[in-house]
Amino acid sequence: MTLKHPKDIGSMAELRGQIDQLDHDLIRLLAVRQRHVDRAAQLKPAEGLPARIETRVNAVVDNVRSIAEREGFDAQTAADMWHLMIESMIAREEQAMSQGEQA
């Protein structure tokens, strides 16, 4: 689906369809990101790394803020969304890493 500029959309039905497509695309990309985090949970133990690395968390959020500002997205909203996602992903890593220790 080729996205139209919002100003070129003439109906709510069309606008909603495009928003639904954007949601689908975002989830697909987040699933790819999650698979990368799952791989990190496999690699970190061998490198002696914990699931939570606060300097990395801060660097990721700072990067997201910068990207949001450049792209015209509210930087605080982006940071809040990423903090929530990161906390969830760290919990996922911790669970996977603890199961790996038991194996």
Automatic annotation (TrEMBL):
Chain segments annotated as transmembrane: none
Residues forming the Chorismate mutase domain are 6-97
What is an example of a GO molecular function annotated in this UniProt entry?
A: chorismate mutase activity
On whether Lyase is a keyword of this UniProt record, the answer is yes
Organism domain of life: Bacteria
Give a single Pfam family match.
CM_2
Which keywords appear in this protein's UniProt record, sorted alphabetically? Isomerase, Lyase, Pyruvate
Swiss-Prot/TrEMBL GO biological process terms: chorismate metabolic process; salicylic acid biosynthetic process
Q: What is this protein called?
A: chorismate mutase
Question: What organism is the protein native to?
Answer: Pacificibacter marinus
